[in-house]
Design a protein that fits this description.
- By secondary structure, this protein is an alpha/beta fold.
- The protein has one domain: Spore Coat Polysaccharide Biosynthesis Protein SpsA, Chain A.
- The protein has eight helices and ten strands.
- The strands form two sheets. It has an eight-stranded mixed sheet, with helices on both faces. A two-stranded antiparallel ribbon has the order 4-10.
- A hairpin with a 4-residue loop joins strand 6 and strand 7.
- Helix 3 crosses helix 5.
Amino acid sequence: MKVFIINLERSKDRKEHMRNEINKLFAYNPELKEKLEFIFSKAVDAKNNDHLEFKEHFPWWASWVMGRELSDGEKACFASHYKLWQECIRLNEPIIILEDDVYFSEEFLNDSQNIVEKLLNAEYECIRFCYITKTKMTSLKDNFSFTIQSIGGAQGYFLKPSAALKLTTCLRFWFKPVDNLIDMYYHSRVFTIVYTPSLIKFTNIPTTIIERDRKICVFKKIIREVCRLYFIFLKISYKKKINKIIKYKSIFNC
């Protein structure tokens, strides 16, 4: 299975950090060399205006949904993930996507061969490796959990082509940062499944993403609230659908 690591070409320190993590993983589990292929994926660099190649994904009205425009760094980060979603579809096989500012947890290092098998054999389309916000989760079998709450964190996840197709289709317009938008299962049609305990941990490496000024004009605040109410309605409607599906025990096969 291919493991893509999103890395800016100029961030050589991050690349070296991830190389050390890969070597550590293989030192713990030499047999994984035959199962995992690590590939550094060239990140979209906002400093070079690379993100402008994806400008059709952030039209002028996108900034009205959140009340502010995404920063160039946030757009570039989204584009880096989006490119790999497209690659997953092209390959037509499951992949793992990692950002370059994480390290493998003890859980993963000590049981990685078994965990990789669980990921490959799981019925779920997308499995997150970590989360930022602690919230209520429903425990499933084999260390998987499900939540309808926002958890943040797109630093690492397992992705099947079916989920990649939904993400590229439903999230073709970027009005929130990538980790916030993929939390919106009622919009993306991809449920939030998390492996617990977390398989990756966060480092203290400073982020390369700079947000825009959060000052919002009154008119945009009004539009933002209208959009917020719309998504609340959408979430409530989808929650009813989820409850109905759960009743028939087929939620994660849809």
